[in-house]
Amino acid sequence: xxxxxxxxxxxxxxxxxxxxxxxxxxxxxxxxxxxxxxxxxxxxxxxxxxxxxxxxxxxxxxxxxxxxxxxxxxxxxxxxxxxxxxxxxxxxxxxxxxxxxxxxxxxxxxxxxxxxxxxxxxxxxxxxxxxxxxxxxxxxxxxxxxxxxxxxxxxxxxxxxxxxxxxxxxxxxxxxxxxxxxxxxxxxxxxxxxxxxxxxxxxxxxxxxxxxxxx
Length: 215
Fold this sequence. Notes:
Elements: H1 8-28, H2 35-42, H3 46-52, H4 56-74, H5 86-103, H6 105-114, H7 119-143, H8 151-174, H9 185-200, H10 209-214
Helix pairs in contact: 1-2, 2-3, 4-5, 4-7, 5-8, 5-9, 7-8, 8-9
């Protein structure tokens, strides 16, 4: 992977190439996308394209990486106190995630397909998923110390709810044409937030249902 440009012109050219790749991919599909087509779409020479990206995989990895970073940064409730308003904080975070996922459903749908045959993209997806999990568990330890977490169980529960949000977004937005009716961002946010909140705050987080019944 080539080094990221540092000049304003270089950054603008990189952005232009990524946007062109996205249009070509939407039109031709990832498997049929060629670097030459991206260069033509961007109005640049093929040599200019290769100065920024080594190959098609490098270009797509950069596109996905940018989207994943935005997913991570936009799924933060910066103006809500997680300690005092956990439901609202989760709601704002989930809404940010689902909104950005919906806006980038075309690329994220392709990622789900490509990562089954290319380990590079499986690693990109896995690492981003782990960042979300670790951030939430860290916030729980920091802001909700009164909830005594079973660390191993809380880890599994967090993995489950992260998967729930992501796959719900995939089914509702990336595969929207398969749904009998569309779901709004607000409705989707309420559904996943209720599940997330009830997992960690309705009763003791990190405690299984059988343990709660026995107590």
